[in-house]
């Protein structure tokens, strides 16, 4: 079970990076470009800022992709295996008469599902952390901005919320129709 602390810490750090990136893209990036246009900065300066911003954001997306598609699945599998190994070690000490009972097999089945549930609980907690951090960073960024930035941020968040609701309702209806077919 040595992979868990590092995995949880890296997952939390990844969520912090994603929330900072999200806040940057939704508020700070646009506010800075609007500010540069108001201050009549040169087009080359604005395009340089956009290019550097896209480069940094691209790197964060690459790191996130590596983390979610390479590192995270391996660590999650290690975590599930270590929990199942502990369960197996405890099962070895059970009396032989217990093997034939229905409650024993039910407990084994539930324990197998619980090991995957632990990974989901950590993921859900980190999703909440990311959302709260993104909201806090965005609010702090909006407080010192021009009047147009809060308006654009509100529209952006409203559109994002609407899109998420549409995607969730589509997923729920798909999951429901798949379960009905079974």
Notes on the protein architecture:
With 182 residues, this protein is an all-alpha fold. It is 89% helix and 0% strand. The protein contains 4 helices and no strands. Helix 1 runs antiparallel to helix 2, helix 1 packs across helix 4 and helix 2 runs antiparallel to helix 3. The protein starts with a helix and ends with a helix. The model has no long low-confidence stretch (mean pLDDT 80).
Write the layout of secondary structure elements.
Layout: H1 3-38, H2 43-92, H3 102-143, H4 148-181
Helix pairs in contact: 1-2, 1-3, 1-4, 2-3
Notable features of this structure?
182 residues, mainly alpha, 4 helices, 89% helix, 0% strand
Say how many strands there are.
0
Structural class, please? Answer: mainly alpha
Instruction: Kindly provide the radius of gyration, computed on alpha-carbon positions and rounded to a whole number of angstroms.
Output: 23 Å
Point out poorly predicted stretches.
none
Q: Please outline the major beta sheet.
A: none
End-to-end Cα distance: 37 Å
What level of helicity do the residues show?
Answer: over 70%
| Number of helical regions | 4
What general form does the structure show?
Answer: elongated
What percent of residues are in strands?
Answer: under 5%
- Overall pLDDT metric: 80
Q: Give the SSE order as H and E letters.
A: HHHH
Write a short abstract of this structure.
The protein has 182 residues and is mainly α. Helix content is 89%, strand content 0%.
């Amino acid at each position: 079970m040595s992979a868990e602390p590092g995995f949880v810490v890296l997952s939390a750090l990844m969520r912090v990076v994603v929330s900072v990136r999200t806040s940057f893209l939704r508020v700070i990036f646009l506010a800075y470009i609007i500010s540069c246009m108001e201050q009549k900065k040169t087009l080359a300066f604005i395009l340089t800022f956009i290019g550097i911003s896209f480069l940094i954001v691209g790197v964060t997306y690459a790191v996130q992709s590596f983390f979610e598609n390479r590192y995270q699945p391996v660590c999650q599998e290690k975590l599930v295996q270590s929990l199942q190994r502990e369960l197996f070690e405890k099962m070895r000490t059970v009396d032989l008469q217990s093997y034939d009972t229905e409650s024993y097999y039910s407990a084994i089945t539930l324990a197998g599902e619980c090991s995957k549930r632990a990974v989901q609980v950590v993921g859900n907690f980190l999703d909440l952390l990311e959302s709260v951090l993104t909201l806090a960073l965005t609010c702090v960024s909006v407080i010192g901005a021009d009047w147009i930035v809060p308006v654009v941020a509100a529209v952006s968040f409203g559109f994002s919320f609407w899109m998420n609701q549409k995607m969730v309702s589509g997923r729920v209806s798909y999951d429901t129709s798949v379960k009905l077919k079974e």
